[in-house]
Amino acid sequence: MKNDIPVYDISTFEEYKNAGILVSRFGHYSKQYLHLHSAHRHSFYHLVYFTSGSGTQTIDFQNYPVMPGLIYFMTPGQVHSWSFNTEVEGYIINFSEDYFKSFLYNPLYLENFSFFDEHSGDAVLVLPNEAREKVAALFEEILNEGKEARAFDADLVRILMLNIFIQVSRGLSLKQQSQTNSYNQTLLKSFKKLIETNFIELRFPKQYAELLYITPNHLNALCNDLLGVPAGQLIRDRVILEAKRLLINMELSIAEISEKLAFSDHSYFIKFFKKQVGATPDKFRKQDN
After folding, report:
1. Strand 70-74 to 79-84 pairing
2. Is residue 2 part of a domain?
3. Is residue 277 part of a domain?
4. 20 with 95: CB under 8 angstroms?
5. For residue 91, what are the β-bridge partners?
6. Measured distance between the N- and C-terminal CA atoms of the chain, rounded to whole angstroms
7. Ordered alpha helix ranges (H), the chain
8. Is 189 a member of any domain?
9. Residues 28, 141 share a domain
10. Alpha carbon 42 to chain centroid distance?
């Protein structure tokens, strides 16, 4: 593994004619960017739909099989790698965080789709047979729009992408769909967003409960009911995820990582990490190398 995990920006990819987006057949993309098979991060949104082939991929240290019909979604900042056993084909779209903001009145529209929430459990899923052909046809339309300049082509690409998101979202369970707009789901989503931006400074549920204008008991009950874990575990999980991401960078010492994560001393960080992961940071780093 390289000493430092690379981070790729959307400007790295210039195959598609419109700024802020890359659309490609996956086989071509995979062979052209072989360095992306190793662990890396994106500063953009990323989705892949596999139509053939096999292997594995790792997203934030979780392994998933590669198989026909599987589609996955990634948000900026996640760590990713592939390992294929056979030739793999499908479609890939990379798009910047701002790609939809000038098009949609609601800049947070993508948050309506649970698969763009890395903590939802919906980011990697196998499409039902009846949806696969429809989704593949939408990818083909997007590829065709990239072949020549035509009026409103950029807007049509955005519409086709939203169509893909909606088709995939409809394939999720009715229970998940019915929960999307509930008060508790909205509150949980707000809690997760607060964790994402404050997990280094704020480590206790009561601090987040105060920001959400609810009691700590309410927050804990909410997390236990919807996720089966207490609120504190979500905070600890996010700290551990960031620790793992930093541990990939072999140039950072354990003490430096501890300081970046605002631990009072690195010995406490080691104890915290071992309790949550079952291995010391150094052992995790050697296993992942």
Report:
1. unpaired
2. no
3. yes
4. yes
5. 25, 49
6. 6
7. 26-32, 129-145, 153-170, 174-179, 183-198, 205-212, 216-227, 231-247, 254-260, 266-277, 281-288
8. yes
9. yes
10. 10
Q: What is the pTM of this model?
A: 0.80
Which residue among 177, 201, 231 closes a domain? 177
Could you give the angle at which helices 216-227 and 183-198 cross, rounded to 10 degrees?
110
Which of 141, 162, 177 is where one domain is finished?
A: 177
Give me the residue label for tokens 């001393």: 265
Residue 247 corresponds to which tokens in the numbers above? 């541990």
Q: Is the Cα torsion angle 52, 54, 58, 62 positive or negative in sign?
A: positive
The type of residue at 92 is: I
Do 119 and 191 touch, CB atoms closer than 8 A? no
DSSP per residue, 63-80: EEEE-TTEEEEE-TT-EE
Is residue 1, in this structure, part of any structural domain at all? no
Q: Residue with structure tokens 């960031």? A: 242
pLDDT tens, residue order, the chain (289 aa):
344 678 888 877 765 556 789 999 999 999 988 888 888 888 899 999 999 999 999 999 899 999 999 999 999 989 999 999 999 999 999 999 888 887 888 877 888 888 888 777 789 999 988 889 999 999 999 999 878 777 778 889 999 999 999 989 887 754 454 554 577 888 898 999 899 999 999 999 999 999 999 999 999 999 998 888 999 999 999 999 999 989 887 788 999 999 999 998 889 999 999 999 999 999 998 886 5
Same domain, 157 and 103: yes
| Amino acid in the structure at residue 43 | S
List the domain range (segments joined by +) for residue 107: 7-177
Collapsing DSSP states into helix, strand and coil, what is residue 8?
A: strand
> For 249, which DSSP code?
-
pLDDT (0 to 100) of residue 18: 64
Same-domain pairing of 233 and 284: yes
User: Do 256 and 215 form a contact (C-beta atoms < 8 A)?
Assistant: no
